Amino acid sequence: MSRIGKMPIAIPAGVTVDIAENNKVTVKGPKGTLERVLPAEMTIKKEGEEVVVTRPNDLKKMKSLHGLTRTLIYNMVIGVTEGYQKELEVNGVGYRAQKQGKKLILSLGYSHSNFLFFFTESVVIFEPPTLSSRKFFILLTLSFLIDPLRFNFNTRNPFVPFKLTFFN
Questions:
Q1: Which of 31, 102, 109, 140 has an alpha carbon 20 to 30 Å from 81's alpha carbon atom?
Q2: Quick check: 83 and 140 in contact, CB under 8 A?
């Protein structure tokens, strides 16, 4: 068996996991609700306070899906209990970030400001308690959205090695 896939997923207190037909998994917790349809080839069972994922055979594709399915469910459980956090820092003369409602306004040295709209489940926290800063945190319940957000920041103003301006 897959070393990752065969490990059971412990369900913490305050979290409910529902498994519907066609492997639709719903995880509810203190930070929200996440739903995901997982590969139909895998068998997902809730046994007491654990979720166990099993695969039908030992084909290479099934081995890959086994570990993937288990990891996706585990990330959903972590997302609704603790959430995911990414610290970003804006480096550059005149660079800053401001929060206005569900918008993040980025001043990146252009004559205009860039706007970035956030999903409903994301939260932006600035390190000093002011509304604009060079350092800020993004808190999400979905782990796979953190790297695309960072990529989105870097595409708005790409790294220039001679000026050393970029998002960390």
A1: 102
A2: yes
pLDDT in tens, 61-93: 999 999 999 999 999 999 899 888 777 777 767
pTM: 0.74
Q: Report the alpha-carbon distance of residue 41 to residue 38 in Å, rounded.
A: 9
